[in-house]
Design goal:
It contains five helices and six strands, in the order βαβαβαβαββα. By secondary structure, the protein is of the alpha/beta class. The strands form two sheets. It has a four-stranded parallel sheet, with helices on both faces. Strands 5-6 form a two-stranded antiparallel sheet. It has one domain: Lumazine/riboflavin synthase (Rossmann fold), CATH 3.40.50.960. The longest helix is centred in the middle third of the chain and has 20 residues. Helix 1 packs across helix 5. The structure holds ligand DLZ. Ligand DLZ binds next to strand 3 and helix 3.
């Protein structure tokens, strides 16, 4: 089994986030996990030069609501990229599959509809320990990685459009 810290990245390879505006939408379900993802994302954006006032963080009840929450941020705020954070843990029924499929397809559609980066930061794990490992535990913090991905995608867009 991999024991690598998934959030290890080359700091120097991350462009400056100064001047970029970010939305973050966070599911309240499994908040012990998603709160840690959100904290990681915010800390990483700030570390790379984003301004506090250029980060809009909003909560939705569960992961199924992430798609619409992200669309609201795209429609009703001036953010350039949206980071989507949730945690779905496998249970005894197929609920897990339906939520994961819905959110994955929803986020894919938003990327195309708005021509903006919507970053997939949804943990889909078999159990809580796997989620904790990826929310500031031994495998890093998926929120950090989502933040770096958002910065890199906006930098790419800026490079190609300016
Ligand atoms: C109902 C539900 C279940 C069973 N499990 C999770 C989960 O593991 N992670 C999560 O973010 N949300 C879960 N939800 C709530 C749904 O995402 C959604 O909020 C409700 O079905 C209402 O639309």
């Amino acid at each position: 089994m991999a024991t690598k810290n998934l959030s290890e990245y080359d700091l120097a390879s991350v462009p400056s986030a100064s001047g970029m505006k970010f939305g973050i939408v966070v599911a309240e379900w499994n908040y012990e996990i998603t709160g840690a993802l959100a904290q990681g994302a915010v800390d990483t954006l700030l570390k790379h030069g984003a301004k506090d006032e250029n980060i809009v963080l909003k909560h939705v009840p569960g992961s199924f609501e992430l798609t619409l929450g992200a669309q609201y941020l795209a429609e009703f705020t001036k953010v350039d990229a949206i980071i989507i954070l949730g945690c779905v843990i496998q249970g005894e029924t197929r609920h897990f599959d339906f939520i994961c499929e819905g959110v994955t397809q929803g986020i894919t559609n938003l990327n195309i509809k708005y021509n903006k980066p919507f970053i997939f930061g949804l943990l889909t794990t078999d159990n809580q320990q796997q989620a904790l490992d990826r929310a500031g535990g031994k495998l890093g913090n998926k929120g950090d990685e989502a933040a770096v991905t958002a910065i890199k995608m906006l930098a790419l867009k800026n490079e190609l459009t300016t």
